Amino acid sequence: MAANWQGSSTYQRYLLDIVALYRRKPNLKIYLELLLSIVTIGILTLFAIKPTVLTIAELVVKINSQQQTSDQMDTKIKNLGIAQTLFNQEQANIQLLNQAVPTGPDVQTYIRQIEGLLKKQGLTPTTLSVGQVDLLSQKEATAAATTSSQAAFTITISSSSSFRQTRLYHK
After folding, report:
1. Among 119, 114, 117, 122, CA closest to 162
2. What digits encode the pLDDT tens for the residues 71-116?
3. Cβ–Cβ contacts within 10 Å for residue 39, how many?
């Protein structure tokens, strides 16, 4: 239901009075145009600045996040440098550990080492028996070491010697 303002004499007369007043008074014309220009600029500014302000806020958040990430990466790089220095200092000990701690089952080497120790102490091996040992490839040994906490096998050693031949007797 649209109002019929054109047919109404009150509205028509009011509109004509405003137009006549607008033409007669130049100050009113200037003020009205100035007011309408300020309102138009305000509306356009609001719609133009709002997305810009939102974009600036998002960029500030991103910059802060990336700065925090950069600081964390700098800390990690510093820690890696310290770890590399420690690794280089302990390289000799690591070599000894790699020799002392086996990476997989090597029963023959262990038996030879035991026989060598027995001979060094002046003992004659009588019986040397090894229980069941699972011989795996290097990949399988690594996989088995990660899945089980301990891999063990039994070795039984019997030896004989005269009391005087034992190295334990000689100080």
Report:
1. 122
2. 999 999 999 999 999 999 998 888 888 777 767 767 778 778 888 8
3. 10
- Taking only the tens place, the pLDDT of each residue in 23-35 is 888 887 888 889 9
Residue 136: is it exposed, middle or buried by C-beta count within 10 angstroms (0-12/13-18/19+)?
middle
Q: Where are the alpha helices (DSSP H) in 25-90?
A: 26-89
| Residue with the two structure tokens 């420690």 | 86
Structure confidence by residue, pLDDT tens digits, 132-152:
766 665 566 566 555 555 556
Our CA angle for 57, 62, 65, nearest 5°, is: 130
Q: How far is CA 12 from CA 1, 21, 53, 82, in A?
A: 19, 14, 45, 88
* Token pair in block for residue 46: 């609001």
**Rounded-to-integer distance, Cα 134 and Cα 153, Å:** 9
Residue 8: strand, helix, or coil: coil
* DSSP per-residue string spanning 101-112: S-SS--HHHHHH
What's the chain's length in residues?
171
CB 130 within 8 A of CB 153: yes
